[in-house]
Fold this protein.
Amino acid sequence: MLNKIENAAFAAKMAVKNFFADEEGDTNFVSIIIVVAIVGLLMIVFKDQVSHIVKSFQESVGKITDGMDSGFGQADS
């Protein structure tokens, strides 16, 4: 019984050690952080243009949904 517990503890220790030693996903993580930073910087630099694009998008979506609301909830005669 004690031998099984020791083997399980050793296996768990090796699994944790291998998990922290494995560097397989580090490159993707770093590249994602760099892309997010670049997008953030671009949004700061072009804040006015981004704000205008978002406002125009909201207005056009609002017009589309306002047109859709007029037909809902009414009984067909």
